[in-house]
Amino acid sequence: MKAPDTMPPHHARSRAWLLLLLVALLLGGMAWGLSHVYQEREQRYRHQIEGSLQAVNQLQLRAVTDWRARRMAEAAALTQDSLFARAVAQWRGAPSSPQQAALRERLTILMEQVRYTAAYLVDAQGRLLLDAQGAVTGQLPEPEQQALQLALAQARPVVVELRRDPAFAFAFYGLIAPLFDGTRALGAVWLLVDARATLYPLLETWPNHSPTAESVLVQRSGDEVVSLSPLPLRGSESGALRLPLVQGGRDPMAMAATGVRGAFYAHDYRGQEVLAVASAVADSPWLLLSKVDVGDAFTDAQRREWLGLSLFVSLGLLSLGLVVLLWQWRAWRRERALKRELERNLRWLDNAQKAATVGYFTYETRSEAFVMSRMASAIFGLPDEGRMSLRQWMTMLHPDESVQTLRIHGQAMMERTPLRTQYRILRHGDRQERWVEVWGEYSQASENEPLLMTGTVQDITERKHTEQQLARYRVALEAQVRLDPLTQVANRLALHEAVTQEWSRAQREGQPLALVMIDVDHFKAYNDSYGHVAGDQCLQQVATAMSALLGRAGDLLARYGGEEFAVLLPGADAPAAMAVALRLQDAVRQLALPHRGSACCDSVTLSMGVTSLQAAHYPGADAAQALFQQADAALYTAKQTGRNRVVLFGADCMQALHS
Ligand SMILES: Nc1nc2c(ncn2[C@@H]2O[C@H](COP(=O)(O)OP(=O)(O)OP(=O)(O)O)[C@@H](O)[C@H]2O)c(=O)[nH]1
């Protein structure tokens, strides 16, 4: 099965960081771009707003200047009106009603056409003579009196600047137009303009309605600055606003009075931050101040700006959201594919575990707990909960192997070597004894991470049973291989192995080793007399009798071949071996097996050759052959010297040995 195409965790982590960095850079770039655009546009709007306020100011300035010029021109025209002057001179010389009526009419026309509030004819001393209604009495107020003298002296109209006078309920603007009859000063016409009617409306022309916009005419008066026109934002407060220049600070009126011109920012009499434009009205002491609250002026611009920006930001966020959505969607799809792959693999692994009865587990050294797969839990006879504590596991170990198992586990953990072990457990639930084989490896992701062992566990109970049966069978088989089938004593192979083994031991321990070679006398004749089957039985009886006699550990009776036997006697010196041999001979004699074919006796007899060697005197393994040769030579001598006897190897046997 193809493994899912997964990415190593550190690669996935670094990719996530890279992505985060990119997003941060993108957002940072966007923020920088936005603030840059915002600042630039704010600057542009600021200039626009300042420009538009300046334009309004200029417009109003032009209107006010024109208004003054027109007034002056009209006054000049009156001064130049020689007909009117002559009429005044005649009326002064000889006052008559028709002439007075003509003069009144002229004054009325003047008021109606040029919208003067009042027009008085005064004499050269400033006494009031006539107005549009008729004759009047009184004296020019002081400022007008001074203006009259100046006008008469200069022979041209003189302005009496806008002011309030207790005699009038309104602020008024006055002009003194001197009249001359030739070079004789006749007096003057005092023209009064109610500023409310024609001047103030000029300051209310604003292209855009702004609740905080206002224009005001101001004039410096000594150390003060005085408002000449109403301030709508002052509300109900009436009268002129007077502001000492030393306290003016950043008041726009004070700043204008001290020479600031153009657009500037200030704090007005309400304490509001305002954008103001100040300009001087030509040929007058007036200053025109137009202002608007900064907050108000910029609100609209900001609203438009924010709208633009929010559209931009919304678009940015929308595209970012779309990218994130796309990314999420792709991640979700990839995750779903991986999940499916993982589920397939887990199913496959589960099936594989079931088929192989292999479970997998993880052992966490920090929590001292095994986290196990379903199959591993089943092997340990636990419910399908997937966890087993170290203590729980230890109590399951078979008492015979628990120490060794713990030692092997501990060693693998200490040395970080692969763990390969088999041990028995006693399951708690069903009390069954099971064999398990565990393969595991310890690992540690980093210094700070806990040591972890992952591995597999397999139930090998059946395999173990089979192995044990095989072992038993093998032992039995091996025993069979070394057993003589007829007599059930050891065969020649077993004898040779025993001789080699005992010879080595005898050499190590410095002990003697004795061998007795035994031959049934005239056995051919026995077969001939009683038959081969009887011969077999005879051999069996002889073997059984001799076997019953040998009781010492290590003593071995073997059938050497045919009717020949051998007895190996570890630790027996020559006399001891002789004694055993004689007892064996006696045991067979006592069987009293009839043997009519024997030339030496009526019953079955044995001939024996005995030898005992001190192994230390024969270095080298092959020297064991000497044992056989000597025993054989002794047996040969026994046969040669009449049979039914025991001969100890000695000098008399040497000839047989050599032959
Ligand atoms: N019944 C039986 N006879 C066997 C067996 N093995 C060997 N023999 C017989 O034992 C006889 C041995 O004869 P020989 O070697 O001539 O020796 P012997 O007749 O005993 O004469 P001596 O040894 O000189 O006393 C042979 O006839 C073999 O056939 C066996 O397993 N069963």
TrEMBL record:
Keywords, in A-Z order:
Membrane, Nucleotidyltransferase, Transferase, Transmembrane, Transmembrane helix
Which residue ranges does the record assign to the PAC domain?
419-472
Identify the EC number(s). Answer: 2.7.7.65
- Please give the catalytic activity noted in the UniProt record: 2 GTP = 3',3'-c-di-GMP + 2 diphosphate
The membrane spanning regions, by residue number, are 306-327
Question: Which residues does the UniProt record annotate as the domain GGDEF?
Answer: 511-651
For this chain, one GO molecular function annotation is: diguanylate cyclase activity
Note the PROSITE patterns from the entry. Answer: GGDEF, PAC
Entry annotated with the keyword Zinc-finger: no
Q: Enumerate the InterPro entries for this protein.
A: Diguanylate_Cyclase, GGDEF_dom, Nucleotide_cyclase, PAS, PAS-assoc_C, PAS-like_dom_sf, PAS_fold_3, Rev_trsase/Diguanyl_cyclase
* Database matches in NCBIfam families: GGDEF, sensory_box
Q: What is this protein called?
A: diguanylate cyclase
